[in-house]
Give the backbone structure.
Amino acid sequence: MAVGFIGRTSLVSVRSEVSDITFEDIQAAAQRLKGAAHRTPIATSRSLNRQAGAALFCKCENLQRVGAFKFRGAFNMINQLSEAQRQRGVVAFSSGNHAQAVALVAKLLALPAVIVMPHDSPAVKLKATRGYGAEVVLYDRHRDNREVIAKKLSDERGLTLVPPFDHPQIIAGQGTVALELLTDLPDLDVLVAPIGGGGLISGCSIAAHAMLPALRIVGVEPESANDTSLSLEKGLIVSTPLSPSIADGLLTPAPGKLTFPIMQRHVESVALVTDDEIAEAVRFLLLRMKLLVEPSGAAAVAALMAGKVPNVQGKKIGVVLSGGNVDPTPLARILTSGAGNFKDQIR
Amino acid sequence: MAVGFIGRTSLVSVRSEVSDITFEDIQAAAQRLKGAAHRTPIATSRSLNRQAGAALFCKCENLQRVGAFKFRGAFNMINQLSEAQRQRGVVAFSSGNHAQAVALVAKLLALPAVIVMPHDSPAVKLKATRGYGAEVVLYDRHRDNREVIAKKLSDERGLTLVPPFDHPQIIAGQGTVALELLTDLPDLDVLVAPIGGGGLISGCSIAAHAMLPALRIVGVEPESANDTSLSLEKGLIVSTPLSPSIADGLLTPAPGKLTFPIMQRHVESVALVTDDEIAEAVRFLLLRMKLLVEPSGAAAVAALMAGKVPNVQGKKIGVVLSGGNVDPTPLARILTSGAGNFKDQIR
């Protein structure tokens, strides 16, 4: 498995926007999600704790509906649409979990959905999205601009665009992950979550610091998609070219205009992990903890297993397992590439 | 994947023994297990229910310590040994989960353990057993008699033999699975569990029928290891030759002298499943429910998904996912052999 590399960086003069997302917005989102989303369980493992040198509490968003935390944000936003907006429907662009989330929410709320997806999306995700009754519009990842396609559909058909992360209602929905985690475990020392566009960690940060101001919040990115890490370092939104990683869900070129300032305020640091470290975490979670977590969803555990989160010895750490959707073929490849490579077989 | 075949059958005149295992024994086992075993969660899935046409409640013994229900019986028995017996230690013969269970329990209770295992056991299981600090004695599956080897070790070194299923304290320990399940869900209609030697379903039957006499109890065997099915049909213990199945944990040649009469009394019928049906269930549990369940552990779900358990439409069904230990290479093979073969992608 190739180790991810850091791509060329371009500084972009995007103005970040100050959002006014509050803890109350996240509490209201939790009310909306009641009965619709799962309150996901928290998994623990003695041997994982031994590997990480800390007590890890894994919030199982891989067991969320559609297999990822994305259901929370999508439901929170779509559920607040007006009657007229509902009748026209929604459109989303996504290569994966966000697409499925929007499709399922639209189905549950009985409104039309159009999903703009790359033509080379994992088969299981394309099939699932269509299975939810959504209309799928394919685009070429290398040639087309998905945002332009989605915007055109939105203009032509009056569809409401449901963005993957940079929207207050999406961010508030994702924040319910931390709200639940800290309600169950009010004395955590650190929260570790993966960063793609930053929607998950932004929402979680607002909820978590409202409940527990001293909590340390650490993000995790693949080395090959370190846009947020660089942006935080430079103090402005930096865009990085996309380079491949097994953590396909974390491959965003830049943090969002809304999510970036939230992360600036709340996130202590960002750990960078390699594909090998992510694959090791996927295998550990699967073979030892019996949980299927997709590579993007295992990034936070990977950082902790690899000792890349500073100052965690003996601490209580909340970790978000953000999703569990992976095609069988890449999963089989991860299984056979480094199997039996564990340092410790005792639990 | 080859469909299992029914081997030649030999009628054996083994006298079955009437056991006096009571519900109180199982309640006492539950007390002993408190704080040592996990109280495993119950998983549900809308799409699994749709496939099975019933409401399934999956008792996740794949999340039990050592990754299988076997921990319960081993702990219950070994914990009752006298001080003198503890000092000499224990011996067990097993190709897998029972070995790991005895090894871990011995480690927890700080007593010596010798495990007699086939030399071609899955690498991950050999490694785990040794990792628990047990002494492993290997034997040739085709040439040696493991029971003779274990008996010799027991005689020479005064070790107490911990049998894999045919012992009252082992059976009582396994019965705590049903005790927990019916405590959480007192209105189940049917309980479905896999049958190897019958220890799990026997213990569960005694507990379940004490708590809920009207409960229907259905066993599941691979077609290629249908010894209990044939034995129940003929009314006496029948031995079948071992033929391969991906459900390696269910490959016992005959039901036990203790377990057989218990199954005669409590088990309504035994469903037979093919390797293909088992593989389909493993994939469904993994890719859709994000749970790693080993082939033997997925047999009960396989029977329900394949419509092989009669009269379940609209019923509430308890299903035991009995274990989750599988080597990465065979798991990768299961993943790639029939991937994307699902009838229904909507959840």
User: Anything to note?
Assistant: Chain A touches chain B at residues 41, 60, 62-63, 65-67, 104, 123-124, 127-128, 131-132, 283, 286-287, 289-293, 324, 326-329, 331-333, 335-336, 339-340, 344-347 (CB under 8 Å). Chain A has 14 helices and twelve strands. The longest strand of chain A covers residues 216-222. Chain A has two domains: 3-69+169-336, 70-166.
